[in-house]
Design goal:
Layout lengths: L1 H7 L21 H10 L5 E5 L11 H8 L7 E5 L22 E6 L12 E4 L2 H10 L7 H10 L2 H24 L6 E5 L6 E6 L9 H14 L5 E2 L9 E5 L3 H20 L1
Parallel strand pairs: 1-2, 2-3
Antiparallel strand pairs: 3-4, 5-6, 6-8, 7-8
């Protein structure tokens, strides 16, 4: 969506791919980012997603620091932490904004809080950046119902509900990490385990290699005949043969595992 928003506003996007080395976990490449910033000082914003999507991996804080410490570039580093509530405690870089005036950390109530419908997020920024954002935003950008629901969710009682749900998701994430590899045709987990989804390879039958063919067939069969929706990510760099699987409830995950086993057996037998 960053690319879509940039194009809508007639802005240029300068992509710097993650490290796509197998088993590397898709780490950031701060040297490559800094090189791009040095070559083009007109770049104003760097967007970093942590945990990434579809990688599910936290970004190494030292890599973010390396970009923030660029000696000549004068811009804002934005770290999108939409999924950070599913990572280990202390993973957020929000406290860093007190030391880095050019850092903005974004979070949302759409994921762990389950409040996507109210369309509300938050940015942790320095006073200077906050003043700039407040000057740009519409005067009534947050509705009263949204404000009331968000305030309720952020009270101690609401936070307790969120943490209970997150705990259940983390337990089910561990279950999928243990159970998915037992299904013939499931390959490696790529990326990390810091979000509420997993990125997993789907293998072909003859050679046992990750393959977009069976991955796409599995995605389609699950959605069209089994009532289970996952996301095909095989066209993204470094994700050949990969599906992104969101962690559901215990019942949903049981159904997922059963249906995946059925579909893969059928696909490999064909």
């Amino acid at each position: 969506m960053y690319t879509v928003s940039a194009h809508i506003n007639d802005l240029t996007v300068v992509p710097v791919p993650l490290d796509l080395t197998p088993r590397a976990g898709f780490p950031l490449r701060p040297d490559a980012i800094n090189e791009a910033l040095s070559v083009d000082p007109d770049i104003k914003i760097v967007y970093i997603c942590s945990p990434g999507n579809p990688t599910g991996a936290l970004v190494n804080p030292e890599h973010v620091k390396a970009v923030l410490d660029h000696p000549t570039w004068n811009g804002v580093v934005v770290v999108d932490e939409a999924y950070v509530d599913f990572a280990a405690d202390g993973s957020s870089l929000a406290p860093w904004v007190t030391g880095y005036p050019n850092l903005a950390v974004m979070q949302t109530l759409s994921k762990a809080f389950g409040l996507a419908g109210i369309r509300l997020g938050a940015a942790f920024v320095s006073t200077e950046v906050a003043r700039l954002l407040n000057n740009l935003k519409a005067p009534y950008s947050i509705s009263s119902p949204t404000s009331i629901l968000a305030s309720t969710a952020l009270k101690p009682e609401g936070l307790a509900v969120m943490r209970k749900h997150v705990s259940a998701i983390l337990a089910q994430r561990q279950r999928l990490l243990e159970e998915l590899p037992k299904i013939p045709g499931i390959g490696r987990f790529l990326g990390g385990t810091d979000a509420n989804f997993l990125l997993v390879e789907i293998l072909d039958a003859p050679n046992g290699n990750p393959d977009n063919g069976p991955a796409l067939k599995l995605y389609e069969e699950l959605a069209e005949t089994k009532g289970v929706v996952v996301r095909f990510r095989g066209k993204e760099a470094g994700c050949n043969g990969c599906l992104r699987i969101s962690v559901g409830t215990e019942t949903e995950n049981t159904r997922l595992l059963e249906r995946m086993r059925e579909c893969l057996a059928s696909i490999h037998a064909a």
